[in-house]
Specification:
This protein is of the alpha/beta class. Helices cover about 35% and strands about 15% of the residues. The strands form two sheets. A six-stranded parallel β-sheet has the order 3-5-6-7-8-9. Strands 1-2-4 form a three-stranded mixed β-sheet.
């Protein structure tokens, strides 16, 4: 497994795209770039994401998810059995109801995989630091397709998604990945069937020989949440998930529910969000240190990891990097306190 310092710092998954990258993606969608142009665009953006994390001092890097067009929407183009539907709303303020939807027309499959193996392979060649592989979880990935007559409900869609994810994660491990993370914001938004969700997660990670994390937030499209921001409805059932680490959103909620780790004792790692990706206030190192100290009242230091609340795909790059720098500096303050220096 990956060797990391006490209170390891990481990012959740996506990194803020450079301004030029957004224009380039629009040109790609219009068919203006050739294959070599497209490859250079995504490769350069990924190198920037890795470099920004390294310059900030992050311990466990992610590749930035630049090839995904948001953390999950880009995957649907790799899936067979779907037909794209028009958005439910096209005018007015940006919102979750403007995002892509798909109609299921046949059993969903991914004959060429999800492309995450290729992402990992490229990132591994461009950093010497430990890497975390991130992948949308089966329940979240099942959120955009409409089941129609092929699947009875979202959980039926998710079970096929879990098999696709499981195959992809095993390929990543075969390539050398030692830490993988499922991203499941939808789980906290729809907590009505917690044991069914636990079974999905178990299916997605079965036989995956790596350290396994799971990120759960409340949505972040255009910096907006999509559900009631409470984790407690998932407890204690969520603790039965066969994973090593929960990656949860706390900064935007002023550390609300951190005491869940006292009310529901467990041996899982907890990665706490200590910077708010939806807020343009840049936390100071002391802000970060204060939040870590609060978490240490409930979580042993050897079980605690330090992350932003969510991915940075909806955050300006200058803001994202400044927040990461503050996060690392705040973590160093507490590390020194724990060491008695």
């Amino acid at each position: 497994m990956t060797t990391l310092p006490l209170l390891p710092t990481s990012t959740v998954g996506s990194y803020s795209p450079p301004s030029w990258f957004c224009s380039a993606v629009e040109a790609i969608e219009r068919g203006e770039f050739g294959p070599t142009d497209r490859t250079e665009t995504y490769d350069d953006a990924t190198r920037i994401a890795l470099s920004d994390q390294e310059r900030a001092g992050i311990d466990l890097l992610t590749e930035g998810e630049m090839r995904r067009v948001d953390f999950n929407l880009g995957f649907y183009g790799r899936l067979n059995g779907l037909r794209k539907l028009p958005p439910q709303r096209t005018k007015g303020p940006d919102g979750h109801d403007m995002r892509d939807r798909h109609q299921v027309v046949d059993r969903i499959s991914a004959p060429e995989g999800l492309g995450i193996v290729e992402e990992y392979r490229f990132a591994r060649q461009h950093t010497q630091r430990p890497l975390k592989v991130t992948c949308p979880g089966p329940y979240t990935l099942a959120g955009r397709p409409q089941g129609g007559s092929v699947y009875a409900d979202r959980y039926a869609v998710a079970r096929d998604m879990a098999a696709i994810i499981n195959a992809e994660l095993k390929k990543c491990v075969a390539e050398g990945a030692s830490f993988v993370q499922l991203d499941e914001p939808s789980a906290a938004v729809y907590p009505d069937r917690p044991m069914a969700f636990v079974e999905l997660v178990a299916s997605a990670v079965e036989g995956v020989e790596a350290e396994i994390g799971m990120h759960m937030c409340f949505g972040n499209f255009r910096g907006r949440a999509v559900g009631k921001r409470r984790y407690e409805p998932l407890f204690p059932h969520i603790l039965e998930c066969p994973i090593d680490q929960f990656v949860l959103e706390f900064a935007s909620r002023e550390m609300a529910e951190i005491d869940l780790w006292k009310r529901y004792p467990n041996d899982k790692q907890l990665a706490i969000g200590v910077v708010d990706v939806k807020n343009y206030y840049i936390e100071t190192p002391e802000d970060v240190a204060e939040r870590i100290r609060e978490a240490l009242k409930y979580v042993a230091p050897e079980k605690l990891h330090i992350v932003p609340d969510c991915g940075f795909s909806q955050t300006a790059r200058w803001d994202a990097h400044a927040k990461l720098v503050a996060m690392v500096k705040g973590t160093v303050i507490v590390r020194r306190e724990l060491a008695g220096s």
